[in-house]
Design a protein that fits this description.
mainly alpha, 2 domains, four-stranded mixed sheet, two-stranded antiparallel sheet, 5% strand
Length: 522
């Protein structure tokens, strides 16, 4: 075997190892996490579509992720109350609770099986990151970009849930990578155009925000090629890509009118948003949200090595006019997605900016390539040290990736003072609560839980918690309070004068997974 062939096999083996680590961390951690807030509707909606062929429930999101999860979980042959009033009238939350907690199904088994396809989509996104960075910057850079992706706590957190963010991120990076290959090659590339269409279709059929990709792709192609590319080549590339994407959307709806359904359901986007809700950032509440929310969220929820690599990659691209032009397909969609998300998305989680991460990780590969080719040995060792530190953060955080915060925010315990909702507490630790309480000799608790799961289904034994416990002063006893309610308690104390600001008034005894706080009042 030649040296080049041996090197290629070694690089491929290392890439597979990194993808396997990513999948392994995601799968092992999802096994211990209970139903998050939105999964109560997403998974049962997918089970119903897999059983009936109709995307009837949860129309405010496209059906791809729900369908894949439903097909995977349907192998367990769950009982579905499809003749009940909740399904027939489209009451998705009632139907979801019936399927998971009232129909005699094993909720955790369904959840674990349904989450596996999302892990597969996240692995696909990691593969696109590796291929793009390797083709753009070289083998070692490809491995560095993939390592940033594989061990990112934010990426892992959403790679193991029946939600839409990991899927739209994977589809976006696959589509943009293939679009870069298809439109910058001197010759037509039918294969790249088809793969681009599949990636775009995955993004569109996973989440309506996938539409943000279309103007970004058009701008990249026009700025990169200008008048050099004839209108026939442009028309062909768009026609093939659009046809493949439309086919994926049609297949996701399991209906010949999938595109019409897509356009109709698009009007329901954010239809369930509460206009009275006040968003939270760094101790401040605003009903209109914060324009810098997602920048701050990415800054405090990325590992410090990843944050330095992403900023360094952007800086490297901006340092040279040639690099700025060559990396156009990376930085322009990343900044465009972040700008649109900051302008229109609800301030509910960094997950809305998740497609920005893989693009910046590919950009960071150029920085790693420069360091590895530097003359000074100390500079060459810098990328491996940073990547090891980045990977160690993922290992130390396991399995609690949702409430991960870096040292800037004060770590996981400091995150509650910065962000809330799906950045911190999505109801994910209810499954572990009974065993955790048993280890501390606690048999019964007063529980204030943020989530849509049923605590009694997971064996949580409760005592009544009356409003005065929360609003005035807690009676003697043991309390478990969700982190989201602790944040909301600060707002209620400010706006209503309640004594619900437990974060300021009382010291918690312990914390489970960053989301459930234990208080004991003698």
């Amino acid at each position: 075997m030649s040296d080049d062939a041996e090197r290629r096999w070694t690089v491929a083996a290392l890439a597979l190892l990194l993808l396997a680590c990513h999948a392994g961390l995601a799968v092992h951690s999802l096994w211990r996490k209970s139903t998050t807030y939105d999964e109560v509707t997403h998974l049962p909606a997918g089970l119903a579509q897999a059983a009936t062929g109709q995307a009837r429930l949860n129309p405010q999101h496209p059906p791809l992720v729900k369908l894949l999860a439903g097909l995977a979980a349907s192998t367990l042959e769950p009982r579905l109350p499809l003749d009940g009033e909740s399904y027939l009238s489209g009451r998705e939350w009632d139907f979801g609770r019936q399927v998971l907690y009232e129909a005699g199904n094993d909720a955790m088994a369904l959840l674990r099986r349904g989450r596996l396809p999302v892990v597969g989509l996240s692995v696909l996104g990691g593969l696109a990151v590796f291929l793009w960075s390797r083709r753009r910057h070289g083998d070692l850079a490809g491995l560095a970009s993939l390592a940033l992706y594989a061990f990112s706590p934010t990426v892992i957190a959403h790679a193991r849930l029946v939600t839409m963010d990991a899927a739209v991120s994977a589809g976006a990076v696959l589509a943009l990578y293939s679009w870069w290959r298809a439109t910058t090659c001197p010759r037509p590339r039918l294969g790249a155009e088809l793969v681009c269409g599949v990636g775009l279709g995955i993004a569109l059929a996973a989440k309506f925000s996938g539409l943000v990709l279309v103007p970004a792709m058009a701008a990249c192609e026009l700025l990169a090629n200008g008048a050099r590319r004839g209108w026939r080549r442009r028309l062909r590339a768009w026609a093939v890509t659009a046809a493949a994407a439309a086919l994926v959307v049609e297949l996701a709806y399991l209906a010949p009118d999938g595109l019409l359904r897509y356009a109709r359901d698009l009007r329901l986007l954010y239809g369930d948003r509460n206009p009275e809700y006040s968003y939270y950032l760094a101790g401040e509440f605003r009903r209109e949200g914060f324009p810098h929310y997602f920048l701050v969220a990415m800054a405090v929820k990325s590992t410090l090595p990843a944050l330095a690599a992403m900023l360094g990659g952007l800086g490297l691209a901006a340092a040279s006019r040639r690099r700025w032009r060559d990396d156009l397909y990376l930085w322009l969609p990343a900044l465009w997605w972040l700008a649109v998300t900051s302008a229109v998305a609800a301030n509910w989680g960094v997950r809305y900016a998740l497609p920005v991460y893989p693009l910046l990780f590919v950009l960071a590969g150029g920085l790693a390539s420069l360091a590895w080719n530097a003359r000074r040995r100390a500079v060459r060792w810098l990328p491996p040290l940073l990547l090891l530190t980045h990977a160690s953060e993922a290992v130390k955080t396991h399995p609690d990736y949702i409430p991960y915060f870096n040292q800037i925010a004060g770590g996981a315990r400091g995150g509650i003072h910065w962000l809330d909702n799906s950045n911190l507490d999505w109801g994910q630790d209810l499954y572990r609560l009974p065993a955790w309480l048993g280890e501390r000799g606690v048999e019964r608790v007063r529980l204030l839980y943020f989530g849509t799961a049923l605590p009694e289904h997971f064996g949580v034994v409760q005592e009544p918690m009356i409003p005065a416990d929360w609003r005035a002063a807690p009676r003697p006893g043991v309390y478990v309070i969700s982190a989201e309610y602790l944040v909301r308690g600060l707002y209620q104390a400010e706006s209503r004068g309640w004594h619900s600001d437990w974060l300021r008034r009382y010291e918690s005894v312990d914390v489970l997974g960053g989301s459930l706080y234990l208080y004991v009042f003698e």
